[in-house]
Design goal:
- The chain is α+β, with helices and mostly antiparallel strands and 160 residues long.
- It has a single domain, classed as Alpha-Beta Plaits (2-Layer Sandwich).
- The longest helix has 11 residues.
- The protein starts with a strand and ends in a 9-residue tail after the last helix.
- The structure holds 2'-deoxyadenosine-5'-diphosphate and magnesium ion (MG).
Length: 160
């Protein structure tokens, strides 16, 4: 959601409310993409897409971390494989900033299944299967906040 201005005219009084999106999203470069040396080209695409990197680190998820991060998918047939995969090796976690960050980053990464992801997208270039699809991208401002807090303390974030 981009920011927008709402004008309310009530009993002759004009009230202006500016509603802002947080302009922040969260991403992870997943284990296969990291192992395949795709991190550099992914970071290039992130900058090319006009994003500012507010925080970034290489880390590895424990099985419990991956279970918690993806708990909204618990019970789905791919959940156990997803947890296994996401805790199998190093990942790069990052907070990205840009106007309309969540939506624009989802466009930059492409469809969940790399086979359906458009040419030029990160998942088209670096994804190897629907499960090992190169990167994570938050699906809402609210989840971007939750996911950023999952990985980064305030001290680890660059403030513009
Ligand atoms: P996205 O990552 O595009 O937001 P999602 O939230 O639906 O997709 O699923 C989270 C991750 O779970 C996804 O990046 C890869 C894995 N996944 C989703 N659907 C899958 C499937 N049908 N088979 C295997 N893995 C799947
Ligand atoms: Mg998702």
């Amino acid at each position: 959601m981009a920011s927008f201005i709402l004008y309310i005219n009530f009993a002759g009084k004009l009230t202006i409310i500016k509603i802002m999106s947080s302009n922040k999203t969260f991403t992870m470069i997943k284990p296969t993409a990291y192992k395949n040396n795709c991190a550099g080209s992914i970071i290039e695409k992130i900058y090319g897409g006009g994003f500012h990197i507010a925080a970034m680190k290489i880390t590895q998820l424990s099985k419990e971390d991956a279970q918690k991060f993806y708990e909204v998918h618990a019970g789905r047939p791919f959940y156990d494989g997803l947890v296994e995969f996401m805790s199998s090796g190093p990942i790069v976690a990052a907070i990205l900033e840009k106007e309309n960050a969540v939506e624009d980053y989802r466009k930059l990464i492409g469809a969940t299944n790399p086979e359906d992801a458009e040419e030029g997208t990160i998942r088209n270039a670096c994804g190897t299967s629907i499960g090992e699809n190169a990167v994570h991208g938050s699906d809402s401002d609210e989840n971007a906040e939750i996911e950023s807090n999952f990985f980064f303390s305030a001290r680890e974030r660059y403030q513009l």
